[in-house]
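#dry-run=false #mode=assembly
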Amino acid sequence: MDTGSEPALLVSSVEHRYGAVVALSGVDLHVAPGECVALLGPNGAGKTTLIGLATGLLAVQVGRVAVVGGDPRRATTRRRLGVVQQQMGFPRTLTVAELVRGAAVRAGRPATAALPALVEAGIADLGSRRSAKLSGGQRQRVALAMALVGDPDLLLLDEPTVGLDVTARRAFWQTIAARRDAGAGVLLTTHVVEEAAAVADRVIVLHEGQVVAAGSPSELTAMLPDRTVSARSTIDAAAVAALPGALSVTSDGGRLQVSAVAPEALLRHWLDADPWLADLRVEGATLEQALVSLTGPIHQEVSA
Amino acid sequence: MTAVDSAVVPRTTDERSGTAAVLRVEIAEGLRAVLREPAALFFSVVMPVMFFSIFAALFGDAPSPSGMSTAASMLATFGTFGVVSVMLLNPGISVATDRETGWLRVKKVSAAPVWATIAGKVIASLPYALAVISALTFVTLLVAGPVISVGTWLRLVVVLLVGALPFACLGLAVGFVASANATTAFLNAILFPMVIASGLWMPLEILPGWVRGIAQFLPTYHLAQLALAQLTGAPAAGHVLALLVTAGVTGAIAAFTYRNLRI
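#status=ok
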């Protein structure tokens, strides 16, 4: 069989339970070589479980998970895998170069493979630094170098850009895009929706263990509310959510954001209900709001 | 499935050389951990030497019941204390820490076997155990001069290092299930009573009779007696048997907890 035609990741009819709690049910997805797929969903949607299955950390209960056609529970399969986890826990006593050399050897590569990976991740100058002295952004780039050093066919990135500034994010995704263009499949989870829209070829929305939507970022926004109405209001979010045309409401520092299908009707009723309505804005819906109206309860607090 | 499986071609030519390379990396990481942040092992190395110096000053002149030089017998008992504390604490606490920080998960999702990590931690602890014996030997030489031959000393070292492996298994078993803090507390809580009741600090002869009764059931006692037998030539088969039983039990517990390892 031609390896090139094998999906980088294939997940078919997967169900996963923790005792009585269903984490995933009937999940099908695939990542083709040279494709970047973003996995979106609120906490508890099953993203971490899915990553756990794809990395071989969890045993498949029902269905099939294959990395380049192989079982990720097998070490030989995991050689095709590069993983950036949320919590990498580098030993404080090791230097960056030692960490990446170790990752090379664990991936079945010579330790000398570390140098190009350090260069690729943009940390060639950090080689002799102890991991305890790294900033959050530097740690993520070390994690990236460790994921790239095995020359993987599938990259699994679990919230990889948390804590990175804009410049670092851009550099991170440029590196990933180069790998994707060279033929690696990429599956990432992120809660930064604009980022997913910018870097992913396809977005898969996971909610309560099920795929509730999948498509290109533009397809996903097209099938969802077309407008976001936001304003400072004296009536509460639940009351606004009950107004005609409102799909979902988020409140963000005293400001309510409403995803709406018919903003005109919504505005008429909202202005009637709240004479002190201020700072009104009507915008095109972003993927963030699309996600909320797809998966969220009618009223969600946005903490950030 | 065969066609699918054949797509997964190992990339290195030799799987075994790959595993050996992984083991080398794990040992190097374990050695560096102690070398670069020695605070963690400070007590394991310094305490036995400190106690040794104090007790050598107190009892060094006392006649030894076996007729053997007291300094020599103390080298065997304090050597047991030092080696056991390094081998019991270091691998166990290290693996508990790796579980807590997520570092063990990084290894688990890599293509390298997790057992290589575990083995690396045990092997990397051996040089520090050897360092404790060497420090004790140095103090002995200062205090009492050369009390045993080089050949006897080498036999003593080998007995202590090999005999401490069952304790490493016990430390790992705890480290596989408990947090780093709990592992440290628990292992110290079993180490010190065992050490005292086995006559490793003060000779059993000056301890109450009931302590001697307990000592028979402690692996540290049998390791110390086996170490002493290297100096005296006393029969040691019973002690070897006791240590083999200990190895079987702690090995089985470690294997069981390893199977249920929460990463």
